[in-house]
Amino acid sequence: MSQHLLLPFVILAISPIPGALQDSALSPTEEEHEDLDCGRPEPSTRIMGGSEAQPGSWPWQVSLHQRGGHICGGSLIAPSWVLSAAHCFVTNGTLEPATEWSVLLGVHSQDGPLDSAHARAVAAILVPDNYSSVELGADLALLRLASPARLGPAVRPICLPRASHRFAHGTACWATGWGDIQEADPLPLPWALQEVELRLLGEAACQCLYSRPGPFNLTFQLLPGMLCAGYPEGRRDTCQGDSGGPLVCEEGGQWFQAGITSFGFGCGRRNRPGVFTAVAPYEAWIREQVMGSEPGPAFPTQSWEPQPGPWEPTDENCTIALPECGKAPRPGTWPWEARVMVPGSRPCHGALVSESWVLAPASCFLDPINSDLLPRDLDNWRVLLPSRPRAELVARFVPHENASWDDTSDLALLQLQTPVNLSTASRPVCLPHPEHYFLPRSRCRLARWGRGEPEPGPSTLLEAELLGGWWCHCLYGRQGESVPPPGDPPHALCPAYQEEEEAGRCWNYSHWSLLCQEEGTWFLAGISDFSSGCLRPRAFYPLQTHGPWISHVTRGAYLEDQLTWDWGPEGEETETQACPPHTEHGACGLRPEPAVMGILWPWLAEVHVAGNQVCTGILVAPGWVVAATHCVLRPGFTTVPYIEVYLGRAGASPLPQGHQVTSAPPLLCQTEGGSWVLMGMAVRGSRELFAAIGPEEAWIAQTVGEAHFLPPNGYPHWPPEGSDLCPPDLARASGSPQAALLLLLLLLPLIQG
Length: 753
Ligand code: 4AZ
What we know:
Blueprint: H1 8-13, H2 20-23, H3 28-32, E1 51-52, E2 61-66, E3 69-78, E4 81-84, E5 90-91, E6 94-95, E7 101-105, E8 118-126, E9 141-145, E10 172-177, E11 194-201, H4 203-210, E12 226-229, E13 246-251, E14 254-263, E15 274-278, H5 283-290, E16 337-341, E17 348-352, E18 357-360, E19 382-384, E20 392-399, E21 412-416, E22 431-432, E23 443-448, E24 463-466, H6 469-478, E25 495-497, E26 501-502, E27 505-506, E28 512-518, E29 521-527, E30 541-542, H7 547-554, E31 559-560, E32 604-609, E33 613-621, E34 624-628, H8 629-632, E35 643-647, E36 660-661, E37 666-670, E38 676-682, E39 690-692, H9 697-704, H10 730-735, E40 741-745, E41 751-752
Parallel strand pairs: 22-31, 33-36, 35-41
Antiparallel strand pairs: 1-11, 2-3, 2-7, 3-4, 4-9, 5-6, 7-8, 8-9, 10-11, 10-13, 11-12, 12-15, 13-14, 14-15, 16-17, 16-19, 17-18, 18-21, 19-20, 20-21, 23-24, 23-28, 24-25, 26-27, 28-29, 29-30, 32-33, 32-35, 33-34, 34-40, 37-38, 38-39
């Protein structure tokens, strides 16, 4: 609620104006009518995604104040009556005292002079007996004014529909109010009344949209007495602070109030139109409450039978709106890729986040010596977007206020002088809402960011898979760096990807952004800095905490709700866990240095995948080798690539140029009897945590037939801690990441190296 609207002038104006009753005498024109004239703004005059209204164009709109601030909207329906929403006045099941409230009439800007505005005290608030909460309906209230409003050009009542009144689906109606312009983004000064055109949605169409899991995975059952207005694609909507205000539709030159702003899931979200209390079904209740009041509200008869419009499908199967952001023809071809060119510096890579705004690291535009902003002659700045023939001009540069000292806020927004028409070649990337949860195992990609270098090898090197928050915390902790335990929102995102260190330098010792995919839609999930060097997994700063800042500045960035909710067999990763114990050399005391040349483990296999990648396999039977799935199957590929297996030479000979070595070492432990046992395969992105082989015993036995297993409970011998073998907690330590193993059937006589 917009409690922040503390208007000094209101404190003076809210007390009933002496002589208000006399002031309220109807104008001669209005006295001539038997019924109250309603729904006609002065003929001479004339929210989210809306615009400022013409002063006086919605003369029935009132502002309801409590303790000097605007809380809700309302509509004048008769000189002494205002219609609003019950939830504005009921807290924890208790109706607030009428004396706390005042009604501001004829107001446009709540910051400006009071010109045509006046205030009235509230004598009574009436709420239907069956109102309990917004989701259960009957969200309406009547306010009886302590003295009648003074009607005039800026203060007139709206017409109410009779119970039999039908508003055609698809009708363009208008909602008005002083509410937030986006979620958690209050209307800025001068607090001028906003209007937005919304289309009435049929009950079936609205229910269909709300039956699809959306924000917070929630669905909602629309009830009789509710109506929906808005658009499947969202973006235009009412928001917090608009509640109680009217949704009005014009019929034959007269405006009728079809709805009262009640609630919605967020504001302007896709497939989540605003929910309104339908006014027509409450004709009898309203008449009953205002009985005896002269003049009462007007319920004009509907002048025409609504015909189904051409837009209205006879059978309302619903059109779910799909995301407009984050669609890429193929990974790596990013339609949001923006290069910012500033004279005298190298191009800076950023991302298009709306039709008019590009997000990029602020550090591109900071003086590296003193962290001051570079001279800002925006005239010479240019932005290159994919498939746009000409460079875009830059109109505004907005760095994040913490950009120069906080790496997690190293962000700046650049406004283009001319908005781009979105197309398949140029479209924004989706940004996550603060409550977004990128599921472990999400498919991600690294993308160039800032002055980052391009990757030195094939683009498959940029593929990544997200680790769960706990693994991120545990793995990082082992490397002397701290990543806090998973939080909400998360503190870090850890993607596991391939990275080979070249001459002590890792290739991505550079800025990167992290794109993560959900249902084929790409989100800008995180950004990295240089500080983490070659540590694995690289921790990325989540971008979701910056969603509100980006929306606030851009007023139209594509924030998209979480699209994937399948937690997988391991369930939600929120309960407290403990990191597995580890020794100096890691969970199982593996030596960090590569195997000494010349020592050949007879079961080690070199698995060559698609001619350019090598990972380790283990011979478990004469015709079978076990390898980690992630070595062999690349994300997105459904077919098995061409694979060759070399035995008896693992690590012995140098690899041909251009081969990438995938880090997936097996974990071998020795039994008391001296035999070596394959205990696990390293999880992606780690050399220290292992997916246990044990749980896969049945699958391996069934597939291979002839593999040798330890007898039940035949655990290997565990030497004392500190030695180079496994600590007893291994079974627990290695059990959590899902084992992802692949058995390779060796078809041909083995190629001896
Ligand atoms: C509110 O909290 C509110 N987008 C009003 C309308 C909507 C959401 C919230 C609909 O007052």
